Task: structure prediction
Amino acid sequence: MTTTPRNVLPKGVSANDFEQALAQIRAIVGAEYVVAEDTALAPYNKIMMAVPDEQHAPSAAVMPDSVEQIQAIMKVLNQHRIPVYPISTGKNLGYGSAAPVERGQLVMDLRRMNRILDVDAELCTALVEPGVTYQQLYDYLQEKKLPLWFSCPAPSVIAGPLGNMVDRGVGYTPYGEHFLFSSGMEVVLADGEVLRTGMGSMPGSNTWQVFKWGYGPTLDGIFTQSNYGIVTKMGMWLMPAPPDYRPFLIQYPEDTDITKIVDALRPLRIAMVIPNAVVIAHTLWEAPCTKVNRADYHPGPGAISDEAVQKIRKDHNLGAWNVYAALYGTPETNAANWKIIEQVAAATGGTLITDSTEQGGRATQYRFDLMKGKPNLGEFDLYNWRGGGGSMWFAPVSQAKGSETLKQMQLAKGILAKYGFDYVGEFIVGWRDMHHVIDLLYDRSDAEQMKKAHACFDELLQAFAREGYGVYRANTAFAEKVAATYGPVKRDVERRLKRALDPNNIIAPGRCGISI
Amino acid sequence: MDRREFFRRTGGGMLLGAPLASLPATAAALVSPAGAAAAVVVIGQADRSGAVTLAQRLAAALGHGGRPLPVHARDAAALRRPEQVDALLALPHGTRLLGVMDDASAIVFLAMASSRGAHLLAHGHHRLASQGATRHTCSATGCGEALAWHEPASHPATHVERFYLATLGETAPGARTSLPAVPGGDEALASFLIRL
Result:
């Protein structure tokens, strides 16, 4: 326990009040689970956002172990009007990490609540707490020899399903739209009440994890990308391991091929011939994960040239676009659908690759693993591309049409180049939608690049919004600006909900731009 | 605490030892025979020559009695496997662990360490250049803005070593060796000091 004077306090809260509150919280969770010294709080500082640490510095962190402890803490926080920022595993690096949305918020770290509460092998469902990681769930299923898969995002080894779903993250198996495949939440509200959504509200029901909707308004959605409650349990659907899994890569040689790729693959995706999201990664997304050293091609400052990118393609057998998808089914159904894939690849001038040890090598392997829900950290090599390890995801959404692709790419590339950054992007055909995920990679040890990265992200956001492209997620430093792009009426409704559910504005005010 | 105060700071605190027998084999192998008295563990990324060299320089500075600490080399693949990182982190409470690795590995390592409640004492970035100067940026937790400086790649200064020594509350290098400068090869590295 520390009693050193604190230099970061919640907004509007005196040091004395804060110390009193921490003393009360220590009595609830135990002194060892409240941290307030600088070195212990450092992991809760912002990592990737290109803003000063101080902007998102936490005042303290608390690690409850149960719903009852959270309920008791909420009473204390309401009493002292202390804002709290709940995190599950806090490893959402490119979208904000564990740092609170506003300086001084108390981090509620739910990592101790890491129990896999139920796995129903017949119904293929799971019920998990916030601290459960994908790796933990994977190990559990392996250990129990259960032939069940789940969908996970790229940082899956260290991230968890509850936090990812609450942030409306996506993954790479047929269950990749994570919120869609969730079923049932338990939420501690600001006043300490515990809500179970869907069928979970009904005493005696055993359908919480199988029927999401219940009766009346479906409330689950308002607890995602919001600050109306603290989600403490989540049901999720698991996928039966298919008898036959056929991942593939199709490489295309030219940037301009992206138009026909999307138009050729969209019908297969909508008809579910391809059941998972189709990832179409540009050369520079593949290059870092193939161990290409940027400095070998572009030793100086500024954005890498098109000529250098073409040389990388040639030297390392990478496509301008690299399409990843898979077939999941029986050998018979996959054999039938495989002919369609071969025809589409041939008709569009793509090179079809099925062996992950061929072109692409490591990048292909980690993708093939992700598409079967095997956690890995292969994509982390992106952080080595620029040096300095800075990364911010910019992810606008569009219709899944070829006509949407090149203009977006050119718009992004121009803005990135203006600030000296590379275009490192991929398009993901979700179903009828398409995410254009751009990793703004920069050197976070270079103050000048930090400023440029922040300004660049800002310009990307505004320029894409002018064209009607909204981002589906963003790091917390841009929460307010992103929310503003969605117009005033939606925000007003969100504020009214906040007033109704959290009148003291204590749960993560500012998250996703929602505050009273 | 400002930067001047930081470099004047002394006193590293006592280490809380734990019986060696209670450690997983991998972690026990890292602790020197001297046990808790030498409980600073140095890890360098084996497939990054710059990381190994910088780790060796730091290990030399942190050594005692003219002997450098051992550098435990792990390649990038090992530094991304949770069970292997967990094994490295299964050291006695209070052990300080100093790592030098690429950015991606450092991010993963620190993420896993923080999940186990490790404290981040300091961290740095090192931009090695084949031509011109190497840029170092080091930051001690709670000491305000980062320290940043350039030094010629061919003439190694000892500022990085001094920085981490100061973070540990020591002022003089424990063992001076004739180790070379970190090889300049347009490489970016991260370093960090955590307390388990």
In short: DSSP finds 15 helices and 19 strands in chain A. Chain A has a mean pLDDT of 95. Chain A has three domains: 15-110, 116-240, 244-477. The longest strand of chain A covers residues 433-443.
